[in-house]
Write a structure and sequence with these properties.
30% of the residues lie in helices and 22% in strands. Strands 6, 7, 8, 9 and 14 form a five-stranded mixed beta sheet that branches. It has 22 helices and 23 strands. The chain is an alpha+beta fold. The N terminus is likely disordered. A hairpin with a 6-residue loop joins strand 22 and strand 23.
Length: 674
């Protein structure tokens, strides 16, 4: 079968001969037009169309029409198959020749194939030359004058983030959007934009930039701002072209209580486009910018579909040329208990602090709280510059995600030191030490440095020291253990290792460059010095006391069956006997009336815990910030372990203030259950 290339080869041969005056035959015109079309040489195609067609559009308009349509549908691999010579359709007139062809191409919405026909007509007024009778059907066979090719993105629905009980943490809702249909602005365009900018309290350039986007057309709704509670009563009915529309939006039902955990989505930026060129982001597309929205972005976002249609002048779809269905994002179910999350956040009541709750048997993360926080819904609704400024300038730093930060744990680290001493046989629960006064230094080699304690107890056991939270007793124990054994055993609790979950947490640190001297060793024993942990890691570090010495790995995503089995995070760190002894001492911290955690005691319940106050200052004499800690767990059911830290507890009762804040949560989630 002869192809188009046969005709064009013959045609080019004629063009090479300058003396040749033979007129092109219809077959030659058809072959040349097809070849130019396939090569994307639209200016050359224009030279072959009839004078009537040329009078209706310029060469530039003709070429741009093809290019804009093909670029819009992302056309590639264009193929035009023609029949053998003589197989053209039966002719109605000697001045008209009709040649069939088959068009094939790949597009963003998949392959398109269509059968068409080209009419070649004789022009008697122009020396009987044969020309292409161009019509819109030579773009796509079913097109007629006034028709347009429409490319529409079929949005995939973003997956929902559910808590362990099926409550929505991040879901798809709707909000009212204020926007402009540019074609309806008319002659009042400048005046309307000025009035709208004034009412919205935004610069005119903000609106102009929206209208200047490359995708904007006269008949397309251009979103300007979301209708927030501050704008709900504003009237725009007198402004032509300004209208409202209900549109889908991401909603965060728990707002501030889960803000740093869920994160939020925002419209893609130029940086996002550069970073993810493969994702085919379009105008107004959203992307996870923080928290779980960012962590699970690939799974949540799904894959948009696309539809290519021919539409009539009135907007009615005439034909669907190609369509790829959208693939909705995957729903993600996490281990979080949204009500517990909310309860902890409410308990902090605006204090700068953080908390982590886990199931100590399974490692499931039940809550991750940072306080104070921002409302993630504001990012979706449209964040004003004023609100951003308020958040940024707030001394309590609501934008800071505190549960991913490292803090000195203070005395809540002491159970780890006690466990090491017991494990190595250096100490026993009942070992008595005689300590005089509230200050102690090993010897003169320490110079002016000393360790302090709150209670002057001349004679006490290790159990007493945990109940009284005695720094001196634990410092002496650490010196007996020695720096190297202490470091080796302490590191088994996860120091220097990344938390094995998708959420980004920094690694806990026992020391910056090793425990190089006795003073640093003494300070480390009670969670000062260079010890730094996140609240989640601290909670995990208590799991060996509940699980017969086994450190449990954290779990954030709920398994298929909805149940998790505790996975070890490394080999056992202590023996079951040591674990039982430490847990017994922690029970005494709450149940003993003299215990620093007695404020969390509940009649009929077995609450174990440890308080701590971490001092952030450069010298003993300096008065600096104090962060209060309380770690507590239900020793009977062993299904809740809570670690809470509040900043600036000095002058507010130290760690006792944290106990009072935490007690209602424990009462609700431990005392209220049978």
């Amino acid at each position: 079968m002869k192809t188009v290339r046969c005709y064009i080869a013959a045609l080019l041969f004629l063009f090479i001969l300058p003396a040749c005056t033979e007129k092109l035959e219809p077959e030659d015109v058809f072959a040349s037009y097809m070849e130019y079309w396939q090569q994307g040489r639209y200016e050359q195609m224009y030279e072959l169309i009839s004078e009537k067609a040329q009078s209706a559009m310029t060469k530039e308009q003709f070429a741009n029409r093809y290019r804009s349509i093909y670029e819009g549908i992302e056309m590639s691999n264009l193929s035009i198959a023609a029949p053998q010579v003589g197989e053209e359709k039966e002719q109605a007139s000697p001045d008209i020749r009709t040649f069939p062809y088959q068009l094939k191409m790949d597009t963003a919405a998949g392959p398109i194939a269509a059968d068409g026909a080209v009419q070649i007509v004789r022009n008697e007024a122009a020396n009987n030359e044969w020309k292409v009778a161009w019509k819109p059907s030579l773009l796509f066979p079913s097109m007629e004058e006034g028709d347009k090719v429409n490319v529409r993105t079929l949005k995939a629905e973003r997956g929902t983030i559910y808590d362990r009980f099926g409550r929505e943490l991040a879901a798809n809702g709707s909000l009212e959007v204020l926007g402009i249909v540019p074609g309806r602005l008319g002659d009042a365009r400048a005046e309307t934009i000025a009035k709208l900018a004034e009412r919205l309290a935004v610069p005119e350039s903000f609106i102009q930039d929206k209208l200047a986007a490359s995708w904007v057309k006269d008949d397309v709704f251009v979103p300007v701002v979301n209708i927030t509670k501050e704008r709900i009563n504003l009237d725009f009915s007198d402004l032509p072209g300004v209208t409202k529309r209900e549109e889908g939006a991401r909603v965060y039902p728990y707002g501030e209580a889960a803000a740093h955990l869920t994160g939020y989505i925002r419209e893609v930026t130029a940086e996002d486009l550069d970073k993810h060129p493969d994702r085919r982001f379009g105008p107004g597309d959203m992307i996870g910018k923080a928290g779980m929205e960012q962590i699970f972005e690939e799974r949540l976002r799904g894959r948009d579909g696309i539809q290519i249609t021919i539409v009539k002048a009135d907007g009615q779809v005439k034909e669907t040329l190609a369509r790829v269905e959208p693939v909705n994002g995957e729903d993600v179910r996490v281990t979080i208990d949204a009500m517990l999350q909310d309860s902890i956040y409410r308990a902090l009541d605006g204090d700068a602090g953080t908390g982590a709750a886990i199931h100590p048997r399974t490692g499931e993360i039940l809550a991750l709280v940072s306080s104070p926080a921002y409302d993630p819904n504001r990012f979706v609704q449209g964040l004003s510059s004023e609100q951003w400024k308020v958040w940024n300038e707030d001394p309590k730093k609501p934008l800071l995600n505190r549960f991913t930060k490292l803090y000195a744990p203070g005395s809540v680290f002491k159970p780890i030191t006690a466990a090491i001493g017991l494990q190595l046989g250096v100490s026993t629960v009942d070992e008595i030490k005689r300590i005089d006064g509230l200050r102690w230094a090993k010897d003169a080699s320490w110079g002016s440095y000393y360790v302090t304690r709150v209670r002057d107890v001349p004679s006490e056991t290790l159990a007493d020291a945990i109940v009284n939270s005695d720094n001196i007793y634990l410092a002496q124990e650490a010196l007996e253990i020695g720096a190297e054994p202490f470091s080796t055993e302490a590191e088994k609790f996860g120091f220097g290792k990344p938390l094995p979950i998708a959420y980004p947490f920094p690694q806990a640190s026992l020391s910056n460059n090793g425990i190089s001297n006795e003073i640093l060793l003494a300070d480390s024993s009670y969670g000062q010095g260079e010890v730094a942990m996140s609240p989640l890691h601290l909670a995990l570090a208590y799991t060996p006391f509940i699980n017969e010495g086994q450190l449990i790995a954290p779990v954030l995503e709920l398994s298929e069956g909805g149940k998790a089995e505790g996975k070890p995070w490394g080999p056992p760190v202590i023996t079951p006997a040591t674990a039982e002894k430490v847990s017994g001492m922690l029970l005494d911290v709450v149940e003993n009336r003299k215990g620093t955690g007695h404020g969390a005691y509940m009649d009929g319940r077995r609450i174990a815990g440890k308080t701590g106050t971490a001092e952030l200052k450069k010298s003993k004499e300096e008065k600096g910030q104090e962060n209060g800690w309380f770690v507590a767990y239900d020793a009977k059911r062993a299904d809740l372990l809570l670690a809470v830290m509040i900043e600036d507890v000095q002058q507010r009762g130290g760690s006792g203030y944290v106990v009072r804040k935490t007690a209602p949560v424990l009462k609700e989630y431990v005392g209220g259950r049978e």
